[in-house]
Write a structure and sequence with these properties.
This protein is an alpha/beta fold. The chain has two domains: about 270 residues, no CATH class; about 140 residues, no CATH class. The strands form three sheets. A four-stranded mixed β-sheet has the order 1-2-4-3. A two-stranded parallel sheet has the order 5-6. It is flat, with a radius of gyration of 30 Å.
């Protein structure tokens, strides 16, 4: 399939979409005019449906048009900032016989990509950009990075990026249109069917383009470099998902953010426990769909294996050696991740402090505060003393206590009181300096006593919640740890 045929196919499908929109608009106008000339009840029903559908179509396309553009991700790096990186990219561009990008941007993503601003439906290019993910620089060798960047420049050489803009706009427009027709099921089914056809064809074109770009990559770096890069990118993406879900998600809780995003990611990716977990995740079968924009990893590796091996001098150095100062680059990319409000309002802290504060705020602070408030309401205390909740349990008023917790937003369950009590007791130990949430790159954070023993209060809290006579022992235990009977949780301990 030639590039010219792909262009005709993409533009034809895109044009067909707008022709379909035009047919609906013309039909709506026709029936509206028909009603003015010769009114019929049957025509009125059709006119109402078509007019409402036409309005929904115009609104969807208008919203798509308004949402184009936006701020570019990452930070731009000029030749004066990163001469070695620019030299490598320009050398690769000559190898694939294309013009180099006008701009290189380092981004906080496990990805590398190119884009091209175009005019006249992609027939004329105006500005080229290359995006290089800093996590890739942390993970790949120079050889592997050269293969990846050669792949991206191959998209330029094959004119893939010129087709990308109109094809992408077509996808966005079709999806927005289908979503905007929710109140018009008949018209929605029509556009949904066309959208499926368009996506299947356009994504098949995209998959073919990826394989063509892989050929450029192998011609530059060799089969081993490109295969290794693809495997590492796959594993690094899995690691980044774990990192974002288990660690970066603590950002903002307790008014803090990590002082070193990429330093933390490097630590996670080098932890033996996480490496084993990522290896297990990487062995799972890939889900393949005709709507995928990229071929499966297995298909790409199989296609690479039969390509000719070029002659080249290996360069196993870490890809970070292409940066003048990796720490300065990482700091700049990290700052691009945060909004101005986050930079101003969230305090940068080391990961161990972020985990300690974030876990306390996310798991313990609300439980401690709400249990005290529930005890105050049940016992009629003047202030939210935690001991008031203990007194309610001692008097057998657990059901009332649980009801007050539900009023405060806790989900009903048979173990509600025991769960909140356990989390509140953890909070007391943390407030008294007896325990602390401890960072682990191998898995979830652990709450440990000062001697390293893990805090395990779930069974004890369940026993106290079900036995009023156990409250005396609880009070004694907390007193031994330094808690006063008139202890009132601080309001500032609540999550922000």
């Amino acid at each position: 399939m030639t590039t010219a045929f792909r262009a005709v196919l993409a533009f034809s499908l895109l044009a067909g979409f707008y022709v379909l929109v035009g047919v609906i608009l013309v039909a709506a106008v026709f029936f509206d005019v028909l009603l003015l000339v010769d009114f019929h009840a049957a025509a009125l029903k059709v006119a109402i449906v078509l007019t409402l559908a036409a309005g929904a179509l115009v609104r969807a396309l208008f919203m798509v048009g308004r949402n184009q553009g936006g701020e570019l991700p990452g930070v731009p790096v000029g030749r004066e900032h990163e001469p070695a990186l620019w030299q490598a990219v320009e050398d690769l561009a000559r190898r694939v016989r294309t013009a180099p990008p006008d701009e290189i941007r380092l981004v906080p993503e496990v990805n590398a990509a190119v884009s091209e601003d175009t005019r006249f439906l992609g027939l004329r290019a105006t500005r080229r950009r290359m995006f290089i993910g800093l996590p890739l620089l942390q993970t790949l060798t120079v050889d592997e990075l050269r293969a990846v960047l050669g792949h991206e420049l191959g998209h330029y050489s094959g004119a893939h990026t010129r087709l990308g803009a109109p094809v992408y706009r077509g996808r966005v427009s079709l999806i927005a249109t289908v979503q905007g027709l929710g109140n018009h099921p008949l018209i929605q089914r029509l556009f949904a069917g066309y959208a499926k056809l368009y996506l299947r064809v356009s994504q098949a074109v995209s998959r073919r383009q990826e394989l063509e770009a892989d050929e450029f990559a192998v011609a530059i770096g060799g089969r081993q470099a490109m295969s290794g890069a693809l495997r590492k990118i796959h594993d690094t993406s899995l690691g980044w998902d774990l990192y974002a879900g288990d660690y970066l998600s603590l950002t903002g809780v307790g008014g803090t953010r990590p002082a070193s995003v990429f330093g933390g990611f490097h630590a996670l990716m080098n932890d033996p426990g996480r490496q084993a977990e990522i290896a297990r995740l990487g062995e799972r079968p890939e889900e393949v769909s005709p709507y995928d924009s990229h071929p499966s990893l297995a298909d790409r590796l199989a296609a690479i294996a039969v390509l000719p091996e070029p002659e080249h001098v290996p360069d196993p150095r870490p890809a970070l050696t292409l940066l003048r100062d990796p720490d300065v680059a990482a700091e700049a990319v990290e700052r691009s991740m945060w909004t101005p409000e986050a930079l101003a309002g969230l305090r940068p802290v080391p990961w161990d402090e972020l985990v300690a504060q974030g876990m306390y705020a996310a798991r313990n602070a609300e439980a401690l505060h709400d249990l005290a408030v529930a005890g105050q309401r049940v016992m009629g205390a003047t202030r939210p003393y935690l001991d008031a909740a203990f007194e309610a349990i001692a008097r057998g008023r657990q059901a009332e206590l649980a009801e007050r917790l539900r009023e405060l937003g806790w989900k009903p369950s048979e173990t509600l009181l025991a769960g909140v009590l356990g989390q509140a007791l953890e909070a007391v130990l943390i407030q008294l300096g007896e325990a602390r949430w401890t960072l682990s790159w191998s898995g979830p954070a652990r709450l440990l006593f000062e001697d390293g023993e893990e805090v395990a209060l779930a069974e004890y809290a369940a026993r106290v919640a079900g036995d009023p006579e156990a409250v005396a022992g609880l009070r004694q235990w907390l007193g031994d740890h330094g808690m006063r009977h008139d202890y009132v949780p601080a309001e500032e301990a609540l999550p922000r």
